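Subject: sequence -> structure tokens, single chain

Hey, anyone have a minute? Need the predicted structure for the following. Not urgent.
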Amino acid sequence: MISFAFILFLAISLLCWPAYWIVLGKLRFLHHLPSTKNHLRISVIIPARNEAHNLPRLLESLNEQTHPPHEVLVVDDDSTDATADVARTHHARVIQSKTLPEGWLGKPWACTQGAEAAQGEWYLFLDADTWLEPHALRQLQAATEQGQHGKYAKHGEQDTVISVSPYHAIQKPYEELSAFFNTLMVAGVNAFGAKPDPSLFGQCLLISCAHYQQVGGHNSVKHEVLENFQLSQTLREQNIPRQCYLGKGTISMRMFPEGYSQLCKSWQKGFHLGAKKTNKSALLFSSLWISGAMFFCVATIILLVAIVFQKSSSLPIPQLTACWLVLYTLYTIQCFSVFRSTGAFSYLNALLFPISLLFYQVIFFHSILQKKRNKSTDWKGRSVH
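Reply:
Had a minute. Here:
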């Protein structure tokens, strides 16, 4: 019976394993693009709510660009810390946010005010916890010359909307627990698989002023927690080309410097609406891959039980272990590839991937339970439903 259960779960896991390649088989990096001589007039817009600790690194990196931005605007979203003073110290223009109107969420409102004040021909929206390498703006400009499928744009496609998933910087052990969340966030935009139809990442978005106005800007997503998904849908409906990249070696972020609690709250926030907004195909194959990894974990438990309690039985332990080792190697290779492509996750994290996977599942089911109880998640002093 134990042998049958083990083989069944391992077989299911093996069948789900190829789903990874369907959603993440064609990772694309911003730093791989050829250089450009173009110099676009880019207005960098940074929505900031209590970001005094994050802004110095981002603003300093913007001041060091080989292709400097036209201007840098920090929208102070009712901060209670020194956000505005830090921004001014680093030569950014500060936009003091007006009172949050009814029906708006904080980030879309801040982005809207930044866009209204901007004078550039392109808008680069950046989260305050990101930072750029000196060549980043040059590479972003090169990306606008690419078509929707990563080739050089045809005439009329030069205004490709660019979105980047920043490389996830890791400084403390608890941050390693974000590995699967980060992976599925990348998979969920449906930009790196067999049939890409890109959505957008929320941390880094470059869009022309013309296209931004054409789709109604952030006014069209004013009540959306994951405004990037809805904005990408509007762009898709108007046949505006979009392209996504990974930011390794170009754009980075550190999401959770404040501790474990911040990490949990952030990913719970994403779960509330993430599944509804994710492309159905990307959601299906991502779920299959995660399910396969979970079935592998169950098979691992069964194997351990067999080894510990069935030593005197006739179970083919060596053969079962060999089968387990093959599949473990296959999943570890996948985890290693995507973890290291999307963030500075350790090699050990990939080798011990069941730990991060089980943590992901706990947060996922806790988020579902919170939703059923109609409880909101508090984020930066505001409730997120």
